[in-house]
Amino acid sequence: MKDIRLDLAIIIINYNSAKYTKQCIQSVLDNTTSTISYEIIIVDNASNSKDYEALKNHISGLKKTNISLYRSRINTGFGGGNMYGIQFANANYYLFLNNDTLLIKDPIKICFDFMEKTEDAAVCGPQIFNEHQKKEVSFDHFTSIGREIFGKKMLEIVYPRTKPNRRKEYTMPLTVDYVNGSFMFFRAKDFDSVGGFDTTIFLYFEESDICYRLKKKNRKTYFIPTASYLHYQGISVQKTTWNIRTKIELKTSMFYVIRKNYGYLHYQILRIFFILRYGLVSIIKPKYFKLFYGILIGLPIGKSLKQEQPILP
Predict the structure, then answer these.
(1) Beta carbons within 8 Å of 127's beta carbon, 6+ residues apart
(2) Which of 204, 231, 258 is the last residue of a domain?
(3) Is 119 in the same domain as 184?
(4) Is 313 among the domain residues?
(5) Which of 60, 95, 105, 141: CA 20 to 30 A from 211?
């Protein structure tokens, strides 16, 4: 462990997308003020050797002492990869940054200044723009029975004070349930106090889960509209792989998080709802039968994609 605690540790995961990781690193270097001391920790989540070597050579060529690369022999997913990287961090704040992002101006400084003056803030996140320069939804409501059965819009109508409109434009920091996982700026002591990301989850809903646990400790999550970044939609999970197996993984994580945070009764009510829903859907669209069957047997976390990841030699 390093002796000097930095202001910020930036953790970036690479998985067979070195091209984007290189751009992301350069974006941080070009758009982050020198008044903040920071380190960049890259975790390679078991990429193929060609991709890993390309990234390794690039980082070596940068000759930056504050950039380090660590390779995991197994793809541990979003939470696992970030938790692996956190072991090498020594900072007052953690920024978990997707490799398919580019900073716009200096969102890190804006978030850092906000966190320094806002004592009840555990985590914050900026406004997202897509590659076409259009604003994207940057925060969301906790995964719950109400959200999944009645929809997000209904929650916003019924509970406008606690479930703000996700598509409205804001000019001031706003308390929200959780911010997008592609840019999460944590106070380190808060992140550490709840044990960080739940590594049981391979993909999806990690940010909802951790922000829910922080809220139970009376720690808040904020959306910062004056800070912004670009996020290439669907690069970290390639759109070509967005198939029924990916949908099953998403629902598996959702069921796990709901059962964990709300209990068995909530889980069973939601399971029955989705059995009825996807039972009908699979009649019209047979490709959904695998998802229907998965829900029928309870979408056990033991059948997650996490269990299918090979260990590299």
Answers:
(1) 135, 138, 223, 224, 225, 226, 227, 228, 229
(2) 231
(3) yes
(4) no
(5) 105
pLDDT exceeds 90 at position 113: yes
pTM over 0.85: yes
261, 304: one domain:
yes
**269 lies in some domain:** yes
Domain shared by 94 and 116, yes or no: yes
Is 90 exceeded by the pLDDT of residue 4? no
What's the CATH number where 104 sits?
Answer: 3.90.550.10
Largest CA distance in the chain: 61
Q: What's the domain range around 253?
A: 243-308
- Does pLDDT of 163 surpass 80? yes
pLDDT in tens, 218-265: 999 999 999 999 999 755 455 444 588 899 999 999 999 999 999 999
Q: Which of 193-197, 215-219, 282-286 is the least confident region?
A: 282-286
Residue 182 and residue 265 in one domain: no
